[in-house]
């Protein structure tokens, strides 16, 4: 490229920047979207300002480049391939970024102009910024890098120098380190949508965000000499698994910079092994503020995703496991055991795997669970090398040293004092730039910086807190004194800060205490906006939320008041504790301490405060508004959620705390104020918010997962969560509505006049504070905003695609509002829907009619269906690639609540409303049992008098089909449990159980494709059930035995004499696995131990090896003897047929103490020890004796015998090798008179005699009598 072409290209780049600036600035104008969030508007304006600055720099660079005309004929060095018609890579990347930005914004602007011209859509038209906050921040950072590059090129004196300036600080032949991190994490295997789906499914924790944030915050002067230490260098480079440096444990004090060091260690390993396809680098950061980061389930799944993207074969292995989890419409939940097996299989494709784990000490159990998980992964894989970075904790040390032993290298991490002083100087300069006068004096600044050098255990956290404390509370007069008397540890700084808090006014002090409490343990964590609104009703003196236009506290006031204790996350919208040491310090405060008790943190206090704040917020006059039966109600709710997000949080969270906090008087009063039987408008508004959530949002876990801003790894790009909920059976779905009346009914789905209510039919709104204009005018502000809000829930998108002109969501909200605002929908109905047992107890005392019917049914019917009635009936089988199917227990129907209602007189025979998919209580009870996973619910309904109807048979048949056709094991267990329960009820003669059992048996008989008959149908009597178990034992079919034994009847059978008989049968048939299952049912009493001993003595042949192992594992004593005093060793020392039995007895299954006792025991018949029996009966190879001698300590007491004598047994040994082994082990007795030479037989072998003469001297034998005298 010639100089003139460079100038022309730069001019074109300036034009591109100008266009991008104009397009960006249009989105920040007030007239486009007056209700845009202030923060979002500031972000857009920041992007526009950055582009404007970049355009100015590019214009200056163009002017500079145009002065190099004298070099027109010069041939430029081909540093960047400049002879090709393109800009240097940095400018080319800048151009591409700006072009893509401008094109995306122009498309959105064009769409906005088209929509605005349509008369019926004009009111909905809004021009919205199409990018996320995270993407916008990345864009600003990238533009900043381009500005730095252009600025670096401005002083150039020639075209060559200008172009080469873009390569300064880089080696174009090697990627920069941030690019190395990105490529390692995004993967080295080929991108495909399938691979992206797999990794997105397993990547549950965003460790990458922590890594990149930590690396980006690390300053250029940060260096670590520890990385050059020999053990760490060997660990990174090529350490073998058995080396001393195979595994590292690096410990350091709190706030010492361990996380930054861990990030640097990861980055260094990635940089060194960047081109090594046989090495994988994985990592995890445990954070006290993110519970998912220290849950083994999520940690392991995320590691699977990390390692999979680093090799195609590993990705294939993980893809196969993902395929196993996908069955029909259900994505099953992975298990830790199976994920471990997949992990070990994936590690085989690498030569080595380097894993760095940071922050396990921040976990609630001091990292014990995560440490054990990592240790098990390292122990189970021969090429896995672990490096853990944490504070010293004894439990971590015990686990690591117990798992790795000498292969563990421990290193102590200490921050460099020079770096610490530089860090302190940087922080002080920041404070001085903020016009803080105490740091304007250079001498005082030097004194403060030097004071950190005298600290015994310096840390960056201590320096930061000390500087901020001084900047906040010091004056020019006392700065030197304060820096000299400042505590030398974090705990002291924290305590001084609390003392300063106590000096604040009562309102500020209460604000601080409540803010700390709510940020510590709120589950799920509150966003900063939600926290501000929650604090408005936290009981702060002088603050009345009802008097505020918006019930919230200023965020800046919270952060200023809490100082070093609170900080806002660099990503996301959360205010949280600034450091884990703060949480630990505040938790350790004595609740009885009169000075600091108010700052004590605990989960119980947080949950109580959160529950009370939620109820107070819901009861504010701001929300005393009766829902309207209009389509615009949905728009109103969307706007309210956007402006007052704590309302939905409060609506969903307090019911989950109700049973736990119901004994608290203040909480109970607040709950009864909201759920007043008088049915206030606050109650109606809350009910609609909750029902609207379940109708369109799905479930609690889905909502919690959506709140976490996780950015899953995928191969090449990120995909959002595709949530497609099936609502085919819902109370408000079109499949139900199609058969329940005309479209104009309350459950109709098509447009009808009912969608626009006349003013006269609308109830008058109660008097109260004026609703904010942006909420009350929501009828006119619908459109793209509502679509965007609903898109976050995604449960209705499939309908929108099929019916683009059908306002399905608005219609559903209108219908929910219709039956909720009716007087027959009482707080008792709502409490039953949510399963609030304690609240129902209180409401039943004030509502005499427990069978009050509403449009959704009676309270009992609401309790049977729970939130599933409002949501989709097949919610538990929804299919999604991001959310694992884990419906929380609080959302499932409760057996306790049903029993409470039935005892209060609830009618189990009442017909269901027409909107239900079923016609009888029996069918609803079956479906409720399926949702709850508890078949007792169906039993309670039958016991309460539910009559038999055809739809109950149909529901049971569908459950059977899920087993027979789709092979769902849970369906098989449910069918078996239902039949077992009905059998027991028939025996007791309860209600309609006999009719149900007869009908259900008939359904089962018709299912010809069921593989295994159910015990409840095959075995009518206990004897038949026992025979079935015996057949399973004879074939050693553990699955069949479990299937039979785990039923209610099976558990009753597996007791007493029947269990003894089955145990004997299992031993006789050598069914070790079945025997283990049966032994688990023993109670462990003394009588049971006798049974185990009796079974043990039967295991005297090699074929009983597995049976013996099972008995020993379940506590059978190897010292047990029979009536003749013989133990298992006596009985197993004859010939070679018991060799493997002795091997088992000599293994770790028998303790050394029990083994020694048994080997020295004498039987009651011949007075022999087991070794003597083995020598006497072990001809010709003495195999049993050799095993005993090989594994036991030598002792002359081991060889004893009364009949025959020990000398006679020795004389009868026909193996010189055995005699030599006995002699070497020191087992042979020292004769006093008679020796084995005196007892030789006539057929004795010459080599045996020679061996005996080598052991027993002939001359010594003559002291008694001549051996030849006895030998004839």
Features:
Rossmann fold; 7 domains; 4% strand; 63 helices; 1272 residues; 5-stranded parallel beta sheet; mainly alpha; globular; 11 strands
Topology:
Elements: H1 3-26, H2 38-66, H3 89-117, H4 133-153, H5 159-164, H6 177-186, H7 193-202, H8 207-217, H9 230-237, E1 247-251, H10 258-272, E2 279-285, H11 296-308, H12 312-325, E3 326-327, E4 330-331, H13 336-347, E5 352-358, H14 368-380, E6 384-390, H15 394-404, E7 408-412, H16 417-433, H17 442-451, H18 460-473, H19 479-485, H20 490-502, H21 506-521, H22 528-535, H23 555-562, E8 566-568, E9 575-577, H24 580-587, H25 603-618, H26 632-643, H27 646-661, H28 665-674, H29 681-696, H30 700-707, E10 723-724, H31 734-737, H32 773-776, H33 784-791, H34 797-802, H35 808-820, H36 827-834, H37 837-844, H38 859-865, H39 867-870, E11 879-880, H40 895-903, H41 921-932, H42 936-943, H43 950-964, H44 969-988, H45 993-1006, H46 1015-1018, H47 1022-1034, H48 1038-1045, H49 1048-1053, H50 1056-1068, H51 1072-1079, H52 1086-1096, H53 1105-1113, H54 1128-1131, H55 1139-1145, H56 1152-1159, H57 1170-1177, H58 1183-1191, H59 1206-1211, H60 1216-1224, H61 1246-1255, H62 1258-1261, H63 1267-1270
Parallel strand pairs: 1-6, 1-7, 2-5, 5-6
Antiparallel strand pairs: 3-4, 8-9, 10-11
Helix pairs in contact: 1-2, 1-3, 2-4, 7-11, 7-12, 8-10, 11-12, 11-13, 12-13, 14-15, 16-17, 16-18, 17-19, 18-20, 21-25, 25-27, 25-28, 26-33, 26-35, 29-35, 36-37, 36-38, 38-40, 41-42, 41-43, 42-44, 43-44, 43-45, 44-45, 47-48, 47-50, 50-51, 51-53, 57-58, 60-61
């Amino acid at each position: 490229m010639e100089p003139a072409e460079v100038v022309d290209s730069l001019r074109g780049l300036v034009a591109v920047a100008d266009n991008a600036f104009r397009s960006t600035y249009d989105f920040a104008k007030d007239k486009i979207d007056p209700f845009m969030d202030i923060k979002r508007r500031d972000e857009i304006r920041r992007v526009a300002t950055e582009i404007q600055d970049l355009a100015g720099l590019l214009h200056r660079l163009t002017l500079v480049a145009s002065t190099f005309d004298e070099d027109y004929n010069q041939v430029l060095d081909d540093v960047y391939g400049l002879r090709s018609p393109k800009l240097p890579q940095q400018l080319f990347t800048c151009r591409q970024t700006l072009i893509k930005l401008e094109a995306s914004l122009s498309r959105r602007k064009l769409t906005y102009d088209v929509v605005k011209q349509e008369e019926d859509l004009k009111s909905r038209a809004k021009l919205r910024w199409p990018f996320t906050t995270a993407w916008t921040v990345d864009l600003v950072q990238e533009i900043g890098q381009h500005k730095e590059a252009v600025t670096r090129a401005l002083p150039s004196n020639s075209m060559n120098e200008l172009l080469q300036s873009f390569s300064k600080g880089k080696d174009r032949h090697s990627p920069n380190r941030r690019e190395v991190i990105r490529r390692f994490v995004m993967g080295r295997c080929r991108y495909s949508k399938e691979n992206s789906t797999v990794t997105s499914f397993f990547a549950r924790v965003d460790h990458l965000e922590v890594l990149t944030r930590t690396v980006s915050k690390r300053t250029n002067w940060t260096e670590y000499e520890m990385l050059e230490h020999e053990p760490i260098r060997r660990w990174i480079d090529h350490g073998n698994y058995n080396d001393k440096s195979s595994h590292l444990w690096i410990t350091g004090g709190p706030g010492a910079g361990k996380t930054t060091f861990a990030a640097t260690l990861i980055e260094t390993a990635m940089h060194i092994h960047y081109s090594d396809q046989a090495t994988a680098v994985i990592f995890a950061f445990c954070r006290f503020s993110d519970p998912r980061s220290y849950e083994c389930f999520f940690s392991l799944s995320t590691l699977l995703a990390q390692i999979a993207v680093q090799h195609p074969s590993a990705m294939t292995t993980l893809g196969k496991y993902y395929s196993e989890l996908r069955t029909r419409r259900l994505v099953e939940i992975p298990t830790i055991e199976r994920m471990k097996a997949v992990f070990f299989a994936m590690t085989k494709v690498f030569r080595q795997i380097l894993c760095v784990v940071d922050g396990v000490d921040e976990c609630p159990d001091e990292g014990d669970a995560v440490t054990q998980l990592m240790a098990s992964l390292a122990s189970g894989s021969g090429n896995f090398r672990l490096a853990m970075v944490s504070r010293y904790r004894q439990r971590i040390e015990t686990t690591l040293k117990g798992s790795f032993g000498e292969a563990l290298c421990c290193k102590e991490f200490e921050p460099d004092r020079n770096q610490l002083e530089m860090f302190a100087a940087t922080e002080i300069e920041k404070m001085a730039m903020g016009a803080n006068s105490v740091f304007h004096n250079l001498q005082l600044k030097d004194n403060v910086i030097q004071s950190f050098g005298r600290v015994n255990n310096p840390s960056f956290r201590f320096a930061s807190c000390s500087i901020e404390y001084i900047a906040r509370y010091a004056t020019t007069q006392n700065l030197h004194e304060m820096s000299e008397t400042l505590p030398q540890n974090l705990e002291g700084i924290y305590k001084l800060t609390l003392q300063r808090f106590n000096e604040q006014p009562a309102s500020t002090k209460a604000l601080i205490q409540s803010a700390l409490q709510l940020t510590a343990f709120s589950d799920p964590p509150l966003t900063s906006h939600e926290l501000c609104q929650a604090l408005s009703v936290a009981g702060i003196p002088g603050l009345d939320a009802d008097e505020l236009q918006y019930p919230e506290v200023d965020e800046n006031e919270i952060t200023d008041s809490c100082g070093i204790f609170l900080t806002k996350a660099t990503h996301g919208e959360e205010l949280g504790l600034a450091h884990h040491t703060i949480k630990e310090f505040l938790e350790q405060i004595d609740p009885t301490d009169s000075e600091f008790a108010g700052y004590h943190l605990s989960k119980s206090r947080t949950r109580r405060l959160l529950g009370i704040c939620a109820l107070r917020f819901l009861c504010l006059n701001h929300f005393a508004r009766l829902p309207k039966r209009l389509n615009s109600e949905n728009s109103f709710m969307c706007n309210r959620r956007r402006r007052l997000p704590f309302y939905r949080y409060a609506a969903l969270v307090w019911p989950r705390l109700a049973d736990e906090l119901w004994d608290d008087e203040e909480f109970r009063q607040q709950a009864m104020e909201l759920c007043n039987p008088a049915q206030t408008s606050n109650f109606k508004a809350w009910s609609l918010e909750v029902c609207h959530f379940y109708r369109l949002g799905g479930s609690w876990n889905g909502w919690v997962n959506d709140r976490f801003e996780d950015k899953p790894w995928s191969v090449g790009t990120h995909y959002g969560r595709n949530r497609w909920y099936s609502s085919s059976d819902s109370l408000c779905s079109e499949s139900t509505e199609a058969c329940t009346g005309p479209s104009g009914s309350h459950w109709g789905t098509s447009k009808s006049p009912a969608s626009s209510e006349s003013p006269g039919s609308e109830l008058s709104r109660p008097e109260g504070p004026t609703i904010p204009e942006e909420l009350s005018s929501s009828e006119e502000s619908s459109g793209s905003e509502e679509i965007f809000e609903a898109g976050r829930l995604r449960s209705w998108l499939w309908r929108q695609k099929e019916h683009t002109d059908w306002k399905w969501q608005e219609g559903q909200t209108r219908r929910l509002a219709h039956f909720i605002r009716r007087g027959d929908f009482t707080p008792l109905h709502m409490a039953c829907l949510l399963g609030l047992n304690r609240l129902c107890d209180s409401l039943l005392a004030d509502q005499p009619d427990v069978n009050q019917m509403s449009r959704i049914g009676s309270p009992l019917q609401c309790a049977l269906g729970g939130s599933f009635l409002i949501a989709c009936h097949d919610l538990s089988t929804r299919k999604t690639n991001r959310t694992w199917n884990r419906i929380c227990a609080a959302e499932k129907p409760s057996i306790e609540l049903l029993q409470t209602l039935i005892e209060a007189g609830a009618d189990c025979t009442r017909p269901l409303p027409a909107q239900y998919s079923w016609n009888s209580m029996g069918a609803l009870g079956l479906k409720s049992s399926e949702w709850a996973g508890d078949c007792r619910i169906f039993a309670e309904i039958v016991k309460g008098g539910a009559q038999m109807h055809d739809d109950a048979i149909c529901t049971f048949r569908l459950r059977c089909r899920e087993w027979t056709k789709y092979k769902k094991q849970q369906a098989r267990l449910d069918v078996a449990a239902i039949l077992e329960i009905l059998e027991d009820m028939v025996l007791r003669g309860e209600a309609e159980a006999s009719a149900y059992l007869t009908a259900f048996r008939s359904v089962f008989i018709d299912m010809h494709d069921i593989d295994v008959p159910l015990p409840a149908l095959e075995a009518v009597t206990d004897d038949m059930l026992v025979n079935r178990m015996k057949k399973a034992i004879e074939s050693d079919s553990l699955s069949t035995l479990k299937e039979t034994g785990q039923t209610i009847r099976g558990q009753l059978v597996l007791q007493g004499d029947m269990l003894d008989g089955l145990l004997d049968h299992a031993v006789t048939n050598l069914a070790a696995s079945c025997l283990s299952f049966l032994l688990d049912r023993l109670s462990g009493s003394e009588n049971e131990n006798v049974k185990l001993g009796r079974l043990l003595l039967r295991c005297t042949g090699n074929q009983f090896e597995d049976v013996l192992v099972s008995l020993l594992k379940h506590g059978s004593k190897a010292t047990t003897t029979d009536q003749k005093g013989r133990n298992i060793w006596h009985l197993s020392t004859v010939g070679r047929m018991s060799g493997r039995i002795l091997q088992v007895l000599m293994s770790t299954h028998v303790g050394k103490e029990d083994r020694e006792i048994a080997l020295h025991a004498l039987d009651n018949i011949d007075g022999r020890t087991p070794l003597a029996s083995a020598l006497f009966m072990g001809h010709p190879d003495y195999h049993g004796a050799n095993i005993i001698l090989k594994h036991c300590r030598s002792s002359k007491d081991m060889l004893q015998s009364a009949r025959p004598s020990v000398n006679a047994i020795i004389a009868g040994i026909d193996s010189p090798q055995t005699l030599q082994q006995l002699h070497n082990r020191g087992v042979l007795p020292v004769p006093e008179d008679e020796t084995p030479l005196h007892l030789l037989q006539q057929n004795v072998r010459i080599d045996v005699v020679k061996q005996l003469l080598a052991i027993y001297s002939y001359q010594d034998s003559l002291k008694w009598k001549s051996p030849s005298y006895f030998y004839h």
